[in-house]
Amino acid sequence: MSGWLKIVGLGPGSEAMVTPEVTAALQEATDVVGYVPYVNRVAPRAGLVRHGSDNREEIRRAEQALQLALEGHRVVVVSSGDPGVFAMAAAVFEALEAGDAQWRALDIQVLPGISAMLAASASVGAPLGHDFCCINLSDNLKPWALIEKRLRLAAEADFAMAFYNPRSKARPAGFERTLDVLREACGPDRLIIFARAVSTPEESIRVTTLGEATPDMADMRTLVIVGSQHTRLIERDGAPLVYTPRSAD
């Protein structure tokens, strides 16, 4: 079987954060499949077909990619950040498990990328320097009650927390409720970081506290990090640094 499928991460935005391994895969590809803004990050060239689709068509997109590979194409499925973090890798495997038995014989690889979570953390220091968890605040694929349960348990366990998809026009109330839950569980002085469009020209980083945070500080391009009780802020000239010590009481 001559076709193959590689599921890759394009990093958070900067071309400098695309790994050499992913760059090589894109150079070998005959087809690139993904959400339109991510497909558009791949430069057109002779011999490459770009297949862009809407944000909520993950399974159909995965099925298309698997079928193209079965037909002998060299297919790259693109995600931003890392493909295994709230992105296309899981969708491809969902489609693989439920779909054509022939797809299981394909050469399928997942190539990691730099996640928005790690890029955001690095932009301010090391707030994820000790134990942490990562939660997707979108309730499109899971009920809000489950999100709130996980927020409370993560706060009780004193994890630093990284939040994807905090607030959109379609669900403006969810992040307001998230802040309320965290203030109740962690108190108003807990550090919170709003890292928007990290590694792009539109990058904006804001470090504040839960007591001062407001819902409009986040949108869908924002990665939000909430520290643990041990997370510290180092004041200095210019932007402060935030880190969580490697040890805990």
UniProtKB/TrEMBL annotation:
<dbReference type="InterPro" id="IPR014776">
    <property type="entry name" value="4pyrrole_Mease_sub2"/>
</dbReference>
<keyword id="KW-0808">Transferase</keyword>
<dbReference type="Pfam" id="PF00590">
    <property type="entry name" value="TP_methylase"/>
</dbReference>
<dbReference type="GO" id="GO:0032259">
    <property type="term" value="P:methylation"/>
</dbReference>
<dbReference type="GO" id="GO:0030789">
    <property type="term" value="F:precorrin-3B C17-methyltransferase activity"/>
</dbReference>
<dbReference type="GO" id="GO:0009236">
    <property type="term" value="P:cobalamin biosynthetic process"/>
</dbReference>
<dbReference type="InterPro" id="IPR000878">
    <property type="entry name" value="4pyrrol_Mease"/>
</dbReference>
<feature type="domain" description="Tetrapyrrole methylase">
    <location>
        <begin position="7"/>
        <end position="213"/>
    </location>
</feature>
<keyword id="KW-0489">Methyltransferase</keyword>
<keyword id="KW-0949">S-adenosyl-L-methionine</keyword>
<keyword id="KW-0169">Cobalamin biosynthesis</keyword>
<protein>
    <submittedName>
        <fullName>Precorrin-3B C(17)-methyltransferase</fullName>
        <ecNumber>2.1.1.131</ecNumber>
    </submittedName>
</protein>
<dbReference type="InterPro" id="IPR006363">
    <property type="entry name" value="Cbl_synth_CobJ/CibH_dom"/>
</dbReference>
<dbReference type="InterPro" id="IPR035996">
    <property type="entry name" value="4pyrrol_Methylase_sf"/>
</dbReference>
<dbReference type="InterPro" id="IPR051810">
    <property type="entry name" value="Precorrin_MeTrfase"/>
</dbReference>
<dbReference type="InterPro" id="IPR014777">
    <property type="entry name" value="4pyrrole_Mease_sub1"/>
</dbReference>
<comment type="pathway">
    <text>Cofactor biosynthesis; adenosylcobalamin biosynthesis.</text>
</comment>
